[in-house]
What does this fold into?
Amino acid sequence: MDKQINILAIESSCDETAAAVVRDGREVLSNVISSQIALHTLYGGVVPEIASRKHIEKINQVIEEALSEAGMKLQDMDAIAVTYGPGLVGALLVGVSAAKAISFASGIPLVGVHHIEGHISANYIENKDLEPPFVCLVVSGGHSHLVVVKDYGEYEIVGRTRDDAAGEAFDKVARAIGLGYPGGPKIDKLAKEGNPDAIPFPRAKVDTNEYDFSFSGLKSAVLNYLNGCQMKGEEVVAADVAASFQKAVIDVLVDHSIHAVKEFGFDKFAIAGGVASNSSLRAAFEERCHKEGIKFYHPSPIYCTDNAAMIGTAGYYEFLKGTRSDLDLNAVPNLKLGER
Ligand code: KG4
Ligand code: ZN
It folds into this structure.
């Protein structure tokens, strides 16, 4: 049997300090996540400066825990994979600096990983049969991309948001109806008690690209609705607002994605990113893919939101392709998918 490849992966692009050990790309030996959510909740969103400081406090401990939970030593690692963009520059720098220091001290090769490539690759962890090509919808706090995954590490973005990311819209609407940060999981929960057809919020189309998204109009429509209720002295049923808003987002994501899968002639479709853990979104894709004869893949919620296991998986396929990063690897806050 070929030698096994063990990867130590590090992720610190936003508000989770995370490290994992992944074997041969799809076997997660450990997946340690230190979340800062409780801290940022006090401020209603991620405060970049606080995120960087917390990452510095936690990073060594998280890396040690990942190795010990996997029952392995640093010397057992074949590569160190680290997210180097996109994300918050100060946050990214903590992970990148730690990975470079470990690589320099140990001589273990360094592999810089794109955060979105990580999210997409999260699908490989539990779906052992999934191989490219397929179409993947990446919906997170910072991104809404419809991506054709041509091969491992080879991507074509066919649709993107023109304004807010889907997760950003969830977070802003949650704040407006008084749910606090992070909005996605809170809207997900509250929407179960509401009527998704109660308020006819708009489903935006972008004229110049049928696969692009726009969520800022929807966000404004929700704010206008809330203001209107206030001015008329009408009571707001928050659960109905949450359910109707969520349905408007899901309708657009499902329609555009399924249209792309069919137009580009694929029979496999995957979702990724924090918003992909939304229960109604998953149910809607499940139903539509079943109807259309498309095989639907999704990671478990723990691999949808930010984690290092997905970076280890993406790093494994980059490692196999021969990708190696030098010690001048830097954090690139606006790194484009497919660029190095
Ligand atoms: O992928 P992620 O952890 O971080 C980024 O790379 O941005 O995504 C975080 C985003 C947040 O906007 C959060 O509100 C959203 O994912 N999210 C959800 C759910 N869980 C997290 N949105 C909708 N429903 C959820 N259950
Ligand atoms: Zn992310």
